[in-house]
Amino acid sequence: MNGTTTAEQDADNVIRILVATDNHLGYGEKDAVRGEDSFTAFEEILELAVSEDVDMILLGGDLFHDAVPSQNALHKCIELLRRYTFGDRPVSLEILSDQGQCFHNAVNQSVNYEDPNLNIAIPVFSIHGNHDDPSGFGRLSSLDLLSTSGLVNYFGRWTDLTQVEISPVLMRKGESQLALYGLSHIHDGRLARLIKDFKVKFNCPENVANGEDGNESKEEEDWFHLLVVHQNRADRGPKNYLPEDLLPSFLHLVIWGHEHDCRIEPEENAKKRFYVSQPGSSVPTSLSEGEAKKKHVGLLEIYKGKFKLKPLPLETVRPFVFESVVLADHADELGLVEGDASTKVFKFAQERVEAMIERAVAQHTGHPKQPTLPLIRLRLLYTDESCMFNAIRFGEMFSTRVANVQDVVQFSKVVKRTKTEAVNLDKEALRRALEADNATRVEELVDRYFEEAKSNKPLKLFHSKALAEMTYRLLEQRDADAAENIVKFYKEKAVDHLMEAMPNDENIDEELERFRALYKHGDLLKMLETQGLKVKKEEKSTSVLGSEANASTVPATGRGAARGRGTARTRAGATAGTRGKGQLDVTVSSTRTSGRQQTLLSSVMGSRNTASYVISDDSD
């Protein structure tokens, strides 16, 4: 274009997004000292969006702290959104997908800046989190209210918990095309079940920009795939978090909400080759170590298949200093063995808090709206309760110098765990169990192992088939309470037997042997059935594990070269069967109704008619 510089041309093709998560508007709003903190930080985020001249704001859930926000919180949120996101500035983003399906509770079934009755300068796109999820009569979220009023574009909302389909919001600016996927919060246990049952699917974009040229390879590279998710990222148990490796490999970047510690610098997933950015919360909602990290939001710039994320520090966040001290490490220094340990720890804590208040001064940014009173949390790890003192009375000493007077000090007991004798497997028995021809199921391997090992490591209470039954219920029936129920049943029966026999202490082991001889496995199964507990039949039946042994699988396709922030991304070519379609194509079943869906896990059962990208917990 004549009279246009290269920089200006590039700016016309770069999608600029301000990224933030977990704003928790209304947190502690009735606190006389901290009540305005969440709103002050959110206003700074909106001010940054205006000053950075972004095309849109992307929120990763938990906009509000409560599912039913107070009138005060809702009023202030609406006021701030109208003040900073409304205006005459034109929006350069073009929506290419079906807007009626993308945006929930939008009055005109369209993005808010295309509503002729609204004047939007900076559109806000948001998913919901666990704090502002749909609830109550009508299953409405606070975001539904903001969507209906035209303030927020609410996407990524699930309506059917038996199957979750994630369809992207497709948008374009110049030469850059963005596929924005949203996964609003689902309870981690429920999401884990959906994933295991292959009920989470990604609908990938068709070649909407290039008509019907059929060049899927080129189309795939033209789209930048961005996912916003609000789930546990840290491993809190097998059903209490979403493993990164279960996310599809075609993604470029994942914005991860829900976790409050700031890890905004994109981290590459070595297995799936996408990047993850965790902005964290904009206001501390707990006095924990992770919340004490410097708060940031991100400026995300996307140009075709490249991206750059610039951290923007928040300057209005209240100073917060966290420190954890193990009192046992200072026992000699403080002389806790002799004298009044409580008084000595009290003086020690007072000195520490004084030093922490001094350190908090360094966190003052000079911003006129930043609160001056800091948050101070001193966690004292103790083993002897004689070291404790009245924490509330201690906090009153700093009533005019800290924001959290009631909980400056937190006592946390260190639980001493004695080392137990290591359990060594009988490797020879395990080898013989694995080599058995008729042991193809996990529960059969458990049964055979204990039968092989009983001469060296005999079971004193359980039958080997009881442990096999337990394994069967856990794996086949997805019964999370199987172990507890069977152990409780055996315990009750054994106690009843011992109470009847009343053996001497030295004869308890012998009496337990008689118990095992008296109650055979078959008898116990019948007892379990009479209690209404469904048990596994003795005869063999067709099993998933058995059928998986000979099932064919489709190898996952990888990428030809690594990609980084600000560098182009390439992919390894898929088979001709896949590339002939106008979109990414993944399936988990030999019979499928649509070739345009991708699941989070790949099934290993049956053969597939079409080569595809396979998303599984063991794919590359």
Automatic annotation (TrEMBL):
Its main location: nucleus. InterPro entries: Calcineurin-like_PHP, Metallo-depent_PP-like, Mre11, Mre11_capping_dom, Mre11_DNA-bd, Mre11_N. Transmembrane segments: none annotated. GO terms for cellular component: Mre11 complex; site of double-strand break. Residues 556-578 have a biased composition (Low complexity). NCBIfam families: mre11 (TIGR00583). This is Double-strand break repair protein.
